[in-house]
Amino acid sequence: MLLLIFMDTALQKPREVFRLPSDLTACDNRLCASIHFSSPTQVTLSDGTGRLYLIKSGKRGNSASEKWEIMFNEELGSPFIIAHSVSFVKSDTNSLAVLLLRVEKDELDTKGSGFHVTLEWVTIAEISKEGVHKYEIIKRRVLQGKSVPHYAAIEQSGGGLMIVSHKPFKFMESESDKLEENDDTKILNEKKDPLYYWQQTEDDVTITVHLPQDITKDDIKVHFSPDNICVTLRDQPPLMEGKLYSSVDHESCTWIIRENKSLEISLIKKNEGSRWPELIVGDTRGEFIMDPSQCSEIAESLMHLTSEVMNPNPEKEKPPCNAQELEECDAFLEDGASLCRFDGDTLKVTHIINLGSNPYLFSVVVNPREMPCFCLRHDVDALLWQPHSDQPENMWEHIATFNALGYVQASKQDKKFMACAPDYSYAALCECLRRVFIYRQPTPLATVLYNRKEGRQVGQVAKQLVATLESNDPILGFQATNERLFVLTTKTLFLIKVNSGN
């Protein structure tokens, strides 16, 4: 339906611009229909049964807007919703990339939820055959993960994909890719048992190597130098060879054969007290085993950084984190989300950022020519980030801050949607029913105001507004523009005027 606004918040009578061609009420496992505006004149639409439509909408927003016209439609398997879509020109060809989101049963997952999440990246291009222009699918790629992504968007050029999710996503190989993979690669990919095990104290390092049955003492050669080690068995290539992480007293180093047919090598550290993060520089064939007493030693040395005990002495240097100062909304999920960028050609991850204690809040389109922005909580504030796919050095730019919004939204237990104006003039959130909260950015005061406690003059104030809808129906949609806030319930579309237009 097309609705036009007049007199600030009045809506004209809705006008139908498109109707799905088939009756869908009989379809099993049908999802809600979903729509995404790929460009000012194109729309992608899912009917919830697994069919994708590409529609020419004409220039939307005109009072004389025409009926929408189907340019392409195809059945793409199990039902999906559209997560994102983007229209672009590549090699003088009009193309469109769509991201389809599915939650599917996973028969192999017996320990987890029993489901997995797939994101299918479909590329459609306008092909000209014998003077007839038609759209066809030219590429389909599938990513799989174990959590629904908070944010998933295709770059404006169609060259990459960005995902914010709790659990990682990875591209699934197609059958043709699997056939190309040769046996050598498979052998390399198989996880091997460690070649050697090593332990350390503050003074020495002990290496244990399991020996084949027929090896005797005469077959073993161990060469020590201040910075290197070399171990060979019979006339074979060296079993261990390379530069040690740190210098050793090579004249005091020894080796013996244990009764269980293992070779034990003792290295005496030159720099006592230092812990080695690795044994031989760059060698990943060994496994470090930590002694239980060392574990408790390290835990004790880090105790001042974190503690469950209340702080008995706040004046003491390096006090533990005091749980008395934490509030419920400061608690973060243990497994923080990560932000990944995938390259569209190699299908490899080019950037990965662990968001840790910066939870995802919402996303918003600030500039239609750029990817959607995403908002993260940073301490008590909320920071808005704009992805720039064409700037590898400045891939994510901080463009706005909403003071204290991170703290405020965490205290709203019943919140359902969050949004902000594209010009950052306000942020808003709504509860499941009735209430909408609007948080304006700080503005200069026309009158003089003093902080009574501190006695200083206050230059600007941020206002909070609360709107109560005249409806008890659940809120289903929430969208912010610079002037208005749109709130959709099951029966009514509400318009809240927040700012007056220029």
UniProtKB/TrEMBL annotation:
<dbReference type="GO" id="GO:0005634">
    <property type="term" value="C:nucleus"/>
</dbReference>
<dbReference type="InterPro" id="IPR037895">
    <property type="entry name" value="NUDCD1"/>
</dbReference>
<dbReference type="InterPro" id="IPR007052">
    <property type="entry name" value="CS_dom"/>
</dbReference>
<protein>
    <recommendedName>
        <fullName>NudC domain-containing protein 1</fullName>
    </recommendedName>
</protein>
<dbReference type="GO" id="GO:0005737">
    <property type="term" value="C:cytoplasm"/>
</dbReference>
<keyword id="KW-0539">Nucleus</keyword>
<keyword id="KW-0963">Cytoplasm</keyword>
<dbReference type="InterPro" id="IPR008978">
    <property type="entry name" value="HSP20-like_chaperone"/>
</dbReference>
<dbReference type="Pfam" id="PF04969">
    <property type="entry name" value="CS"/>
</dbReference>
<feature type="domain" description="CS">
    <location>
        <begin position="191"/>
        <end position="280"/>
    </location>
</feature>
